[in-house]
Every structure is written in structure tokens, then in C-alpha cells.
């Protein structure tokens, strides 16, 4: 379980990257939901935390592949492989990521 930041420090519509290996991107959607996925796009080496968030989708900043934050699945080309998803929890105002044990599975 990895601490991310205080809940109030991650505004709606924003994301934060945590420097795990591999890095993880944590998103707070406009609806206030929290999601965590592997930060690196499965197409090439781009940081999804720098992408554009729309609903539960994040668009890669490099070639505009889109990933569903709930499943990690790409919703359009050029990405074909999913990113890992990770469970997120909030305890006493602190956001935590529970890193998934294996590729493609949530913790
Ligand atoms: S690097 Fe993400 S779509 Fe190409």
C-alpha cells in the first residue's frame, strides 16, 4: 500500500504520478472518483498522467490512444494492450494505492 497525497490536494479532473517501478498514475475524475493505472502508455513511452481526462477515460498525450480507468483497457488505437489497474483507498484523508500483483489484475 503506497501513500499518494492528501485527498484535498488532488482536485477533481487532476492526476498525480507516483514514482513506483513502474510508475503509477492516480486520477480523480470530475465525478470525484479515484482510479489508479500504470502511468506508461502501452503503445510507446508516454506518461498517461499528462494526458487528458474525460469522464472515466484518459487520452494519451502522444498519439491519443484512450484508456478506460475502470478496466485499463484501451478504447481506441494505436494502443492495443491494457494498462494495469490498481485499487485506491482513502484513509484518514490520505489516498493510498494498492499495487496490483500481476499484469492486468486489480489488487
Ligand atoms: S504513446 Fe500512447 S498512444 Fe502512442
TrEMBL record:
Cross-referenced InterPro entries: Rieske_2Fe-2S (IPR017941), Rieske_2Fe-2S_sf (IPR036922)
Stretches that traverse the bilayer: none
Keywords in alphabetical order: 2Fe-2S, Dioxygenase, Iron, Iron-sulfur, Metal-binding, Oxidoreductase
Pfam families: Rieske
Keyword Transcription: no
GO molecular function, one term: dioxygenase activity
Source domain of life: Bacteria
Gene3D superfamilies, per database record: Rieske [2Fe-2S] iron-sulphur domain
Residue ranges of domain Rieske in the record: 2-97
Residues in the signal sequence: none
PROSITE patterns, per database record: RIESKE
Protein name: Bifunctional 3-phenylpropionate/cinnamic acid dioxygenase ferredoxin subunit
